[in-house]
Amino acid sequence: MGMTIAQKIIKEHLLSGEMVRGSEIGLKIDQTLTQDATGTMAYLEFESMGIPRVKTERSVAYIDHNTLQSGFMNADDHRYIQTVAAKHGIWYSRPGNGICHQVHYERFGIPGKTLIGSDSHTPTGGGLGMLAMGAGGMDVAVAMGGGAYCIPMPGMIKVELTGRLTGGVSAKDVILDVLRQLSVKGGVGYIVEYAGPGVETLSVPERCTITNMGAELGATTSIFPSDAATKAFLEAQGRAEDFRPLASDPDAEYDKVISVDLSALRPLAACPHSPDNVKPLSELSDIRVDQVCIGSCTNSSLTDMLRAASMLKGKKIADTVSLSISPGSRQVFSMLAECGALTDLIDAGARVLECACGPCIGMGFSPNSAGVSLRTFNRNFLGRSGTKDGQVYLVSPETAAASALTGYITDPAGPDAPQADISIYDVPEKFRINDSGIIAPLDEEAAKDAEVIKGPNIKPFPETEPLADKIDASVILKTGDNITTDHIMPAGSRILPYRSNIPYLSQFCFEVVDPEFPKRAQEMAPGIIIGGQNYGQGSSREHAALVPLYLGIKAVIAKSFARIHAANLVNAGILPLIFEDEKDYDRIQQGDALELADIHAGLKEGRIIARCPAEDGPDIEIPLRMELADRQKDMLLAGGLLKYTAGL
């Protein structure tokens, strides 16, 4: 039987386990990346391992999230990351140099290599033919130290692309259509691989848009072949030597196959408050728009910006609309300036923001109360924009530009919409290479005497404990389905500066769901959280596990978990449990006392019983299963990933 592209890369990097779906495999990791909202904790964790220098081929620390420096906190974190990177062999991308995923595929990504990053949109690199996966900061720390990255062997989903995109339709509409077909949990346990004749019609930046937002499927990652388009992109980046052709075998087998006819596709939007709440623009044309944001790691490439600029050239945005532009990298920014597109954007009324994540994680440019914001981003979770009742729609750059001009959601493929035409700009075939924003680490000799500087806002991560054989705890919170890590540990300008200060951060935990949760958790500790389907979807932020740990949460019981969050819970020493019968979810209420007994024996069997005292009659018994690899069971018994690793 032939192999898929992902299976070929996995086979080349397999350190442990067998390539049998669902069984745990350990992979050699070639590259890692961090961003500053998760990087501080990742590097504190790496330092605690006592390894003097990273053992990966390339590790890069990016500053792109917390660039709003309204106090000392973010600046101190950046100084710490820069000094720890210099000392331990990690490349450093300065604030303003660009968004980690955009810069990484431009300057460092290599087809056929493995990459993990402490950001859930690391699968962006799959557009270049990498096996690129989001992970928790502890997993990244272990990989930098030379350890394996362990995941369940994924199944394979094939997305067959046919035809060619027509005017006004873009790569963003492709992934929105895939989300419409599969949903935000349809990719859990799978790698999504794109194939078919339509693939060759898409450029690398277009492919990276698709793999980036593939994170919203819950997939392990997404990947494209490495072909002539890949080679052309790397040559234009001055990195021709990094090219390697990659394709699936003709007889490769897939667990699922879906298809997208690019020629028949029409512009789409993900409506509030989920990336899979996808509707055609034809159903949304009467919606008035207050704000438009073009950028983010999904749609901030040079091509994206040029398409929007060509549509806005010589025109003015509607009086009722505020428009922001966030180029994805310094390279994109400088090339927009050189070809005149930046002037066209400014003249149309756009506000140009820094080359950073910015509005995507609620760091500035929040919409007005109940405002409608069209964003070329990848997430529209409730409150993520920084405005709790903001109505965020996810759209393509073409839809964003067309709507900014009219003040209403506007179909860019409609007869009256301006058409994108990047040929009006004189753009060179070679990208403008300027790596002045990237700082190489010190050599090993100089690094020995280098100082790592930690500011007063940087606190150690919470102390973990070996898993007890019995847990008596109260249900502190009961949630519904699709609880995201934004619900658990929000982002935004009020909160992000404290990502390296878990005690302070804890007061915001579950703020969107239940503002009283932190106080109640501390008063009633130890505690248990009850969740619905797909608990912990979204960002890979390990703070969504570390903060509940600090607040005394010992276990989370859910109908199902998102992959990265479940792993982060185990890494932090919190026990993730799954209802054997989902109907039992209704038998437990917030405030109930639960007893989890004989846990150590249950680890061996993969099953335990939760007991809940009933008002009348015998205790309620609820069977729970554990979807844990043997290594994860040992980690829990040791007290989490770091203590487990230290004991090896």
SSE inventory with pairings:
Layout: H1 5-13, E1 14-16, E2 24-27, E3 31-35, H2 36-48, E4 58-62, H3 72-88, E5 91-93, H4 100-107, E6 114-117, E7 131-134, H5 137-144, E8 149-152, E9 155-162, H6 171-182, E10 190-195, H7 204-213, E11 221-223, H8 228-236, E12 256-261, E13 268-270, E14 278-280, E15 291-294, H9 302-312, E16 322-325, H10 330-339, H11 341-348, E17 351-352, E18 372-375, E19 391-394, H12 397-406, E20 438-439, H13 444-447, E21 471-478, H14 485-488, H15 502-505, H16 517-524, E22 527-531, H17 543-550, E23 553-558, H18 563-571, E24 575-579, E25 593-596, H19 599-605, E26 607-612, E27 620-625, H20 630-638, H21 641-646
Parallel strand pairs: 3-4, 3-6, 4-5, 6-7, 9-10, 9-12, 10-11, 15-16, 15-18, 16-17, 18-19, 21-22, 22-23, 23-24
Antiparallel strand pairs: 1-2, 2-8, 5-20, 13-14, 21-25, 24-27, 25-26, 26-27
Helix pairs in contact: 2-3, 2-5, 6-7, 9-11, 9-12
Please characterize this protein's 3D structure:
There is one protein chain. This protein has 21 helices and 27 strands. With 648 residues, the protein is of the alpha/beta class. A hairpin with a 7-residue loop joins strand 26 and strand 27 (620-625). Helix 2 crosses helix 3 (72-88) and helix 9 runs parallel beside helix 12. It starts with a helix and ends with a helix. The mean pLDDT is 95.
Provide a compact summary of the structure.
With 648 residues, this protein is of the alpha/beta class. The chain contains 21 helices and 27 strands.
